[in-house]
Write a structure and sequence with these properties.
oxidoreductase, TIM Barrel, 8-stranded parallel sheet, 335 residues, Aldo-Keto_reductase, oxidoreductase activity, NAD(P)_OxRdtase_dom_sf, NADP_OxRdtase_dom, alpha/beta, 16% strand
């Protein structure tokens, strides 16, 4: 596996986003299937595993911890706090964004327990809580480093301005934000700010939540609780227009001798050596397909043509509904 760098960590050029083993896309796979995917990734050379307190309200961290604990020295472990499940008075767990220092410390300590480890290599603020100055949240996270609970800090879904404010308090090793052919928001300002500060960029949803695989043709078949259902790009208004873009993209992938998913990942890797995509999957076969993209050497014109086919001008619809857009701090292209 080719490698890239996040601060002092040398990691696989493609990591594994573990979220959908426990969360977000309808009924998750069985714990046994989750274990198969995690161990297959480790065996294939993946050395960057990404989870969060939010995923499955802790279940994902428990899965990653149980399966990978005995291999702990072989990989870089990433998790996130500041957005987690909180049980209400009615007994129902709900997602809550809370960046207060005491909450972040509690989130981290809970994550350490679930992961079965003494230290998290890269700890992200999952969302900036806009009621709390970013300097206060990052300040407390820096004290987690002083306490030996965390090795490096990251931010997720932040603007260039917020990144610079945070970096003035403590070095930020990585920014994690959605980035793919169909979500180009990082190109507005965040990628440049990351390069200015020496911060790596970790791209989540690099396959556009399965859109770029070409396999998601019927949104109506998605589970009722699938997080894609309320996303505008997957709506009845916008998704047919987006599907129409795939015929040219699939033809280009065939011309290049790879799958659409591999072309999408190869395009992302070609955008800079500081970019590390973390696709997620519940399938070992799809995992191996994704990882093979790191070995592709595609001509520059193929990469350029892919970018010309699917981009912020050709894709229909904003990436998030209004409420979710308000919760992130990223620069956004108009939908």
């Amino acid at each position: 596996m080719h490698t890239r760098r996040i601060a002092n960590f040398e990691v696989s050029a493609i990591g594994l986003g573990c979220m959908n083993l426990s969360h977000a896309y309808g009924v998750p796979p069985s714990p046994e299937q989750g274990e198969r995917v995690l161990l297959a990734a480790l065996d294939a050379g993946v050395t960057l595993f990404d989870t969060a307190a939010l995923y499955g309200f802790g279940a994902n961290e428990e899965l990653v911890g149980r399966v990978l604990k005995k291999h702990r020295q072989q990989f870089t472990l990433c998790s996130k706090g500041g957005m987690a499940g909180v049980k209400g008075e009615d007994g129902v767990m709900r997602r809550v964004i809370d960046g207060r220092p005491a909450t972040l410390r509690r989130n981290c300590e809970d994550s350490l327990r679930r992961l079965g480890t003494d230290v998290i290599d890269l700890y992200y603020l999952h969302r900036w809580d806009k009621k709390v100055p970013i300097e206060d949240s990052v300040g407390e996270m820096s004290r987690l480093i002083e306490d030996g609970k965390v090795r490096a800090l990251g931010l997720s879904e932040v603007s260039a301005g917020t990144l610079r404010k945070a970096a003035a308090v403590h070095p930020i090793a990585a920014v994690q934000t959605e980035y793919s052919l169909w979500t180009r928001n990082p190109e507005i300002a965040v990628l440049a700010a990351c390069r200015e500060l020496g911060t790596a960029f970790v791209a989540f949803s690099p396959l556009a939540r399965a859109y770029l695989t070409g396999r998601l043709t019927d949104v109506a078949a998605l589970d009722a609780k699938d997080i894609r259902r309320p996303m505008p790009r997957f709506s009845a208004e916008h998704y047919p227009r987006n599907l129409a873009l795939l015929s040219g993209f699939e033809a280009l992938a065939q011309e290049a001798g790879c799958t659409p998913a591999q072309l999408a990942l190869a395009w992302l890797l070609a955008q800079g050596e500081d970019i590390i995509p973390i696709p997620g999957t519940t399938s070992v076969d799809h995992l191996h397909e994704d990882l093979a993209a790191a070995d592709l050497k595609l001509p520059a014109d193929v990469i350029a043509r892919a970018g010309d086919l699917i981009n912020q001008r050709t894709v229909s619809g904003p990436r998030y509904p209004a409420q979710a857009t308000q919760e992130v701090d990223t620069e956004e292209f108009p939908g």
